[in-house]
């Protein structure tokens, strides 16, 4: 998204027409109240997610201390007692809720010396950096490619882009990741095959691409479809009939309305990309959150899994809220009162 | 003509489609003189809009124009985008049929008017805004200083069309191309817009090319007229001449297509079939969790009527007057309250099952012949669907025979019953919709703007068909329309509605010849009135 609306000194009419609706103070207040209301209504949502995940997790066979080499019965009993696993499920649930409300997600069952909060806070920055780059590339690249393809509908470029995009969507990143790694790290030797290193371009480029490309393909297809429709809209015809330059016709008048479906998809995608990709983090051995989710689940590390579930659901709630606010920013007809 | 603004010679427009080239405009010559209003008249598909789209370089991607369209000493056909962008929007401007969608919903109207000013006239943002306010005042938008910051959705259809006109006039154009600018508007708004255009033209010496299918507008508004049919100009001349002595048979047909005739009133002792007493329909807007009480809108406010066998009651009003809502309330198709009696049964409290036995007697035909027929069913299936419910004992062969009868009755070839709606024209589809109602042998038919989406000549055919069916079967019609000419030709009693209430009612001739209420007079003047001062 480019520059904003009314700039100081020139009420309402900056020469560059931005993509934002103009707001009145009253609307900002309404919006603020809407955000508060939504955050309040997120509490029951997260509560339900926590409850369902808690009980589903316990329904799965096995437990954190069912190891390949079984523990002594006394040791097991002691451990179960320490972690309250000998109590009825409802009691455990009650304790968990009480602790979570106090911000305590409990100790990890597997990484004995760490609390879940410590593990997640330590891993989250890696996932956020990786995810932010991937999201940025996917959105900017996807919107640009999709727009260009729509402008050149049925051209060779359009067909090429859409074929590649279809491939991009159908090839899962557990295939794309290793292929990228094989070609650029193993065969060409341009970049390392894995590891965070100092988090520079060389280390990040492959995992970011592996994470971004499938999403870029989706964004490109979405944008192209929406742009094809919006380029045919009456108001875009008006813009053309009034001799406005192509940039204004395409960006100001056509693209802005075409962004709505893109923004809808952005919400859940951002939440899932930013909270770490299990596959990409595993393939490129990166210390992000995604890995903990899988390791936690495989090891029945109840608290760790619950912690990541809460994290992901919070991200989803927040990003869906951001999407709703973006709707109102793009379209003045969307008002939350 | 020495003083010609736009000179179109031998213009052809072709569209490439998967099923071959479509030759939409076939060698058209049209000239617009300085300060002249030229009407281009034709029915849908005549190529009148595409001719002007080609001039403006606005053809769809698969369209190609050849020939010549000279503006001053510039040839517009084949002009590169950069060149044509210098002319369009500043010297040649255009307003469109759809005021609801022609403005960008995401920007304030001030900003949209300012954009061409800044681009073509090089005004600063501040100057453009000031000029936008002036222009809004010129097109008589109330409170222009405030309205300049409105978004299109905050304006009515008429106001949006005024904004479009303001935008069109912003750079002092030489020629305004108006593509059916009033078709989507109510008659009183239509008259205001035409008056505004005439006034602006007188003040600025603007030339106008007016594309329309409405001969009433041509007569009132234009100096010269071109009649187009299937991509060709069949006749041209001064308006007075064309209306007095049309030479081409197609022009004569168009002129005669104005619906005429009167309906014979039903016998005085005809029984009352459908009766509504104090009918109210209220809609609730908004409301809900943390949003407070909803706003109540009385769409129909205490309306009573009695429809006799063989009678047609015409319900006239502009959009939002509640006329369609009333029609639906009488058929118990919405949440209306009030006493409704059909053939001496009180149906106002009947539930769905209780209504079912009456439903076949109470039929409805809709306005939009495109949206009201299922695209996945054949004409035969559409027409006979009601029989499946109301006469389930019929065999497939019986139903097929009935479909043949019904289609023949509405003047369609029964052999076409295996075709799908998209293979029919608008008029034919409306005939299918009428056949769907008739096959059940109803007593009352609510006709909700059945002719509004159709060309005049087709309209006339449908009016004749409806009249014929009524005589043959003694039907009672509730005819809902904003089109006074059609209402007059079909009804023997008229109710004028405004804001959910009946403003005036009475026998057709009394209402048309001596309307008592100011609103009725206004409606008549707007629809059937004399020439606007130009």
Model description:
The complex is a heterodimer of chains A (337) and B (534). Chain A is built from twelve helices and no strands. Chain A is mainly alpha-helical and 337 residues long. In chain A, 36% of the residues are buried. Among the domains of chain B are: 183 residues, Rossmann fold (3-Layer(aba) Sandwich), CATH 3.40.50.300; 80 residues, no CATH class. In chain B, strand 14 and strand 15 form a beta hairpin. Chain B is globular.
Short structural summary:
The complex is a heterodimer of chains A (337) and B (534). Chain A has 337 residues and is an all-alpha fold.
Provide a count of the helices of chain A: 12
Shape of chain B: globular
Sheet with the most strands, sense and barrel status of chain B:
6 strands, mixed
CATH architecture of the domain at 4-102 and 173-256 in chain B: 3-Layer(aba) Sandwich
Radius of gyration of chain B: 25 Å
End-to-end separation of chain A in angstroms reads: 25 Å
Keywords:
heterodimer, A: 337 residues, mainly alpha, MetI-like fold, 12 helices, 70% helix, flat, disordered N terminus, B: 534 residues, alpha/beta, Rossmann fold, six-stranded mixed β-sheet, 19 helices, globular
């Amino acid at each position: 998204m480019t520059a904003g609306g009314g700039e100081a000194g020139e009420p309402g009419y900056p020469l560059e027409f931005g993509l934002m609706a103009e707001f009145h103070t009253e609307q900002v207040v309404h919006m603020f109240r809407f955000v508060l209301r939504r955050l309040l209504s997120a509490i029951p949502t997260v509560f339900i997610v926590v409850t369902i995940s808690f009980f589903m997790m316990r329904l799965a066979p096995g437990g954190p201390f069912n190891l390949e080499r079984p523990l002594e019965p006394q040791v097991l009993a002691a451990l179960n007692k320490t972690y309250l696993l000998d109590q009825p499920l409802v009691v455990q649930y009650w304790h968990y809720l009480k602790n979570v409300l106090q911000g305590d997600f409990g100790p990890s069952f597997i990484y004995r010396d760490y609390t879940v909060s410590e593990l997640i806070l330590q891993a989250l920055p890696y996932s956020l950096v990786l995810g932010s780059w991937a999201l940025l590339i996917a959105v900017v690249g996807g919107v640009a490619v999709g727009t260009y393809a729509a402008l050149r509908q049925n051209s060779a470029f359009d067909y090429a882009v859409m074929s590649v995009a279809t491939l991009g969507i159908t090839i899962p990143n557990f295939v794309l990741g290793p292929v990228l790694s094989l070609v650029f790290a193993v065969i060409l030797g341009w970049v390392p095959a894995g590891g965070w290193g100092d988090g520079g371009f060389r280390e990040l480029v492959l995992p970011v691409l592996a994470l971004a490309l499938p999403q870029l393909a989706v964004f490109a297809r979405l944008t192209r479809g929406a742009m094809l429709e919006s380029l045919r809209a009456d108001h875009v015809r008006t813009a053309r009939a009034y001799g406005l330059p192509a940039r204004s016709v395409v960006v100001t008048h056509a693209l802005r309305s075409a962004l709505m479906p893109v923004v809808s998809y952005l919400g859940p995608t951002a939440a899932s990309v930013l909270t770490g990709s299990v596959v990409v983090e595993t393939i490129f051995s990166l210390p992000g959150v995604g890995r903990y989710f899988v390791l936690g689940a495989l090891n029945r590390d109840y608290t760790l899994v619950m912690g990541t579930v809460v994290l992901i659901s919070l991200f989803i709630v927040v990003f869906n809220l951001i999407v709703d606010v973006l709707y109102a920013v793009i379209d003045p007809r969307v008002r939350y009162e | 003509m020495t003083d010609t603004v736009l000179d179109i010679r031998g213009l052809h427009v072709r569209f490439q489609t998967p099923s071959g080239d479509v030759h939409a405009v076939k060698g058209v010559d049209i000239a617009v003189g300085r300060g002249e209003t030229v009407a281009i008249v034709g029915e849908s598909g005549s190529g009148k809009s595409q001719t002007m789209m080609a001039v403006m370089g606005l053809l769809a991607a698969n369209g190609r124009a050849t020939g010549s369209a000279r503006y001053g000493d510039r040839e517009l056909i084949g002009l590169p985008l950069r060149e044509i962008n210098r002319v369009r929007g500043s010297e040649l401007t255009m307003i469109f049929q759809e005021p609801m969608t022609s403005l960008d919903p995401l920007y304030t109207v001030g900003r949209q008017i300012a954009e061409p000013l800044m681009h073509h006239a090089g005004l600063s943002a501040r100057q453009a805004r000031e000029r936008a306010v002036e222009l809004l005042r010129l097109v008589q938008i109330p409170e222009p200083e405030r309205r300049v910051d409105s978004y299109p959705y905050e304006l009515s259809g008429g106001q949006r069309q005024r904004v479009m006109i303001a935008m069109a006039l912003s750079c002092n154009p030489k020629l305004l191309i108006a593509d059916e600018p009033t078709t989507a508007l109510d008659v009183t708004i239509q008259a205001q817009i035409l008056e505004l255009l005439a006034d602006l033209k007188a003040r600025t010496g603007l030339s106008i090319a007016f594309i329309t299918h409405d001969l009433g507008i041509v007569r009132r508004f234009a100096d010269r007229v071109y009649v187009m049919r299937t991509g060709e100009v069949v006749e041209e001349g001064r308006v007075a001449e064309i209306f007095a002595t049309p030479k081409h048979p197609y022009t004569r047909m168009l002129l005669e297509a104005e619906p005429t005739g009167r309906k014979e009133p039903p016998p005085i002792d005809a029984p009352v079939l459908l009766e509504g007493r104090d009918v109210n329909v209220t809609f609730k807007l908004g409301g809900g969790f943390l949003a407070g009480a909803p706003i109540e809108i009385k769409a129909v406010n205490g309306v009573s009527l009695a429809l006799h066998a063989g009678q047609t009651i015409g319900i006239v009003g502009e959009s939002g007057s509640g006329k369609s809502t009333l029609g639906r309330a009488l058929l118990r198709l919405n949440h209306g309250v009030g006493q409704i009696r059909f053939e001496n049964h009180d149906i106002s409290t009947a539930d769905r099952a209780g209504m079912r036995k009456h439903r076949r007697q109470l039929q409805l035909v809709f306005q939009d012949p495109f949206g009201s027929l299922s695209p996945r069913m054949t004409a035969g299936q559409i027409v006979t669907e009601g029989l499946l419910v109301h006469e389930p004992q019929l065999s497939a062969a019986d139903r097929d025979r009935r479909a043949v009868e019904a289609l023949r009755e509405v003047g369609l070839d029964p052999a076409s019953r295996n075709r799908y709606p998209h293979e029919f024209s608008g008029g034919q589809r409306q005939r299918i919709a009428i056949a769907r109602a008739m096959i059940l042998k109803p007593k009352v038919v609510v006709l909700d703007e059945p002719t509004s989406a159709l060309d005049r000549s087709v309209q006339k055919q449908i009016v004749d068909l409806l009249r014929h069916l009524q005589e043959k079967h003694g039907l009672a019609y509730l005819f809902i329309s904003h089109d006074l000419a059609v209402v007059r030709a079909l009804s023997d009693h008229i109710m004028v509605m405004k804001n959910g209430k009946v403003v005036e009612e009475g026998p057709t001739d009394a209402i048309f010849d001596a309307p008592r209420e100011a609103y009725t007079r206004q409606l008549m003047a707007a629809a059937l009135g004399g020439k606007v001062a130009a």
